[in-house]
Amino acid sequence: MKLGRRALRSQRWFGPIDYSAMGSRGLLKGQGWPEDLFDGRPVIGICNTWSEFSPCNAHLRDIAEAVKRGVWEAGGFPLEFPVTSVGETLAKPTAMLFRNLIAMDVEECVRSHPMDGVVLLCGCDKTTPALLMGAASVDLPTIVVSSGPMLSGSFQGRKAGSGTHDYKVFTEYRAGRVGAEELLAFECSVNRSAGTCMTMGTASSMACIVEAMGLSLSGNAAIPAVDARRRRLAHLSGRQIVDMVKSDLRISRLLTREAFENAIVVNAAIGGSTNSVLHLLALSGRTSVSLTLEDWDRLGAATPLLLNLMPSGEYLMEDFFEAGGLPALLNEIPELLHLAAPACCGRTMAERIAGARNENPEIIRSVDRALRKSGGVAVLRGNIAERGAIIKPGAATESLLSHRGRAVVFESLEDLEERVESPSLQVNPDDVLILRNCGPCGFPGMPEVGAIPIPLKLLKSGVRDMVRISDARMSGTYYGTVVLHAAPEAAIGGTLALVETGDMIELDVARRRLDLAVDDNEISRRRACWRRPEPRLASGYESLYVNTVCQADEGCDFAFLKGCRGPDPRWGL
Fold this sequence. Notes:
- By secondary structure, this protein is an alpha/beta fold.
- It folds into 4 domains: 1-40, no CATH class; 42-152 and 192-367, Rossmann fold (3-Layer(aba) Sandwich), CATH 3.40.50; 153-190, no CATH class; 378-533, Glucose Oxidase, domain 1 (3-Layer(bba) Sandwich).
- The chain is 32% helix and 12% strand.
- It is built from 19 helices and 14 strands.
- The protein has helices spanning 11-14, 19-29, 60-73, 99-112, 127-136, 164-174, 180-190, 202-212, 228-246, 257-269, 275-284, 293-301, 317-322, 325-330, 349-353, 413-419, 456-459, 520-529, 540-548; strands spanning 43-48, 77-82, 117-122, 142-146, 153-155, 158-160, 378-380, 388-391, 402-410, 432-435, 467-470, 482-487, 504-508, 513-516.
- An 8-stranded mixed β-sheet has the order 7-8-12-11-10-9-13-14. It has a 4-stranded parallel β-sheet with strand order 2-1-3-4, with helices on both faces. The chain has a two-stranded antiparallel ribbon with strand order 5-6.
- The longest helix is centred in the middle third of the chain and has 19 residues, at 228-246.
- Residues 1-6 have low confidence and may be disordered.
């Protein structure tokens, strides 16, 4: 066996003849690994978010085996390791509370173990940004394999999308127009396989962003979870990560300003999730790229909505895949992209999309047939949100994008749940529903409750949309005239905390304005009387979260996690 110092990072563990290396080699040999695997072969970590508590990721064990085949084939040594995994539906109080925790888990696992490159296996929405954030702060060669969307759903002879139709069907159940048996039948017909939501929720949005940024092989975004082609992509990704290690193609060389701008353009063109704003802002904070809400507004406003996919359109992710997937969509807007941006495969954006065919122009629209001239999120400012709030105009009711209405305030999620069904609630269709204390610190964790339910008395009269404003988030699968991420949040003294029922609220998306129509003196008087709410927990992880989390306009990362610390700061490598 050849021993001594090697260029590969893993040889710091396996190369020397000393007591530490003896233990590193010996204990792995105890698993049955042969001698020659420790002699300068690239060690590839496979970072797996498999969990039966995270249904979107429940098939990632199989995907990991496909990745391993590719790593072995390319001459690497694959070692799989688990990290914390959460799914949006099962993790309480909200999955977003744990995104930064997972990022810490990933960063420290990657840095502390003998790997030369890493494959990130992720799916349900918070796992993708968390794994990227952790990997970016270590800066090894990195490639992503997403779990992929579940198979298309259908209900009563029509396409049905997870999240989007869950919300619609449950709304009709609340209104008394759908029975319990019908609701249970819907659950079965819309959830047909493993995988993420097959609508353009946050998971699919982040998978598209990953592909657009060059962090995955082409096709990663849309191949269905249970399609054999996803396993083929995983196999090829295993091969590719070994090549990336050999050429020292680190993630920092891919996470450029051009890559972030391509991601924002793509999110607009696909009608992507508002959660993508938070996640990309947080990811940029781990890099040398400075990203702001203004970048989202500027680039999104100039990008047409081309993808006819729920919740902004009619189709589902499986249809998108069959129409040509993300490469075909990107081929419709080359003039909006940085075509020289590099990718993990060693090719530029231009080379990756060359020859991609649009097989269904009804699903992937051309620019002259766009669903909307502007598909991006709009960033609103005003005295309610001095540091910004966002709205997804493509999912909103056009007539409500310029609106003046009376505020109806809900102090918390518990207050909302207690009163929204009450027939005595004083509310009219033109009112503006306000939900506060659901931001990063206030809940804590910023849950997906921004799509405030229409009060039952209005629902029964036929109302299906109203202007809603909160410091919370909204699922990418939802729709409606919903203003989100108001910053500063109410729990730390943002003006949202000072709104009273009966105040007039003015929304003007075209002018990017969101204002409380109350004079400055009255706002100052109310502020002097305001008291910060007590945190729910004074110790433990939630306490760490509340005391260190940044506001929504900075991506809700922990302040102490910003920046890239590199792979081996203690060893000076």
